[in-house]
Specification:
By secondary structure, the protein is an alpha/beta fold. The chain has ten helices and eight strands. Strands 1, 2, 3, 6, 7 and 8 form a six-stranded parallel β-sheet that branches. The longest helix is centred in the N-terminal third of the chain and has 20 residues.
Length: 273
């Protein structure tokens, strides 16, 4: 992952900046055409917003939504867990993973890592990855200006590195929503954006059967599966996300029956294949 000095704007973002510059020039030369310029810029902003709010989009920056081809050929599936660590749920998730010899990636909220450092350290000790899911999980994260994005990203980087013993290399945005400014922030922090191919909506759904049906439909090697061991709302009525404790054992059994192996997401060269 290049640092900030090696950052290259995604083509859509570069094109947007060029369009704004051309619009400013057009207004200076022929101000009577302001309606045309305003319409073009409004359409451009709508395209940028749509690209940013589509979690799997690569239009506003690199985005890992599936495992590389080599991992798919090996029959690997990535299990990922968001919004933890939770003192009640996460340790039981770790035990379930251990019981199946599975590895996973935990996208953790920085302030929860600070509140439960022993659990975050235990995630790493058991061979899983502890990665960045912002410092506070703000629901308006996708509306933040660059300085606020940096505070959220860098705050979690420091909190996780201090406890887990390694600096995160992967990042997942809250709800997968971002804006065109995030790509540069992640590049400067040495982070790679990760989304998913399959989600059970377990943060909203409490019926494990429905969650499993969503995850199983079309499940295949190379998929990145999104689950939650924490709840994104501090002090929420469920605390963590206990429905995952019903879903995960059945999902792990199903993966084994299909000959698929749960793995953590790698951040090295192979992840860029």
């Amino acid at each position: 992952m290049p640092d900030g000095r090696g950052y290259r704007r995604p083509p859509l973002v570069a094109g947007s900046l060029a369009l704004h510059a051309a619009g400013a020039l057009a207004l200076a030369v022929a101000p009577r055409h302001w309606r045309i310029v305003a319409g073009a810029l409004m359409a451009d902003h709508l395209v940028l917003a749509a690209a940013s709010l589509w979690p799997r989009s690569t239009w506003v920056g690199a985005n890992l939504s599936a495992l590389p081809a080599a991992a798919a050929r090996r029959g690997e599936v990535a299990l990922t867990f968001d919004d933890g660590p939770d003192p009640d749920v996460t340790p039981r998730v770790l035990d379930l993973l251990d019981g199946h010899g599975a590895r996973a990636t935990f996208f953790c909220i920085g302030e929860r890592v600070q509140a439960h450092p022993e659990i975050a350290a235990e995630i790493a000790r058991r061979g899983h990855r502890v990665e960045n899911h912002t410092q506070t999980h703000p629901h308006l994260f996708s509306c933040y200006p660059a300085p606020a994005l940096r505070r959220e990203v860098e705050g979690a980087q420091e909190a996780i590195a201090r406890v887990a013993g390694r600096v995160p290399r992967l990042f997942r945005a809250p709800a997968g929503l971002r804006n065109p400014l995030l790509d540069r922030v992640l590049c400067r922090a040495g982070l790679r954006l990760v989304s998913w191919t399959r989600r059970g909506f377990d943060a909203l759904e409490e019926d494990p059967g429905r969650i499993l049906r969503r995850l199983r439909a079309g499940l295949a090697a190379g998929d990145v599966v999104l689950l939650h061991d924490g709840a994104a709302v501090p002090g929420g009525h469920r605390g963590g996300n206990p429905v995952v404790l019903e879903v995960l054992p059945r999902l792990l059994d199903d993966l084994a029956a299909r000959g698929l192996r749960p793995v953590a997401i790698e951040s090295g060269p192979e992840a860029s294949e």
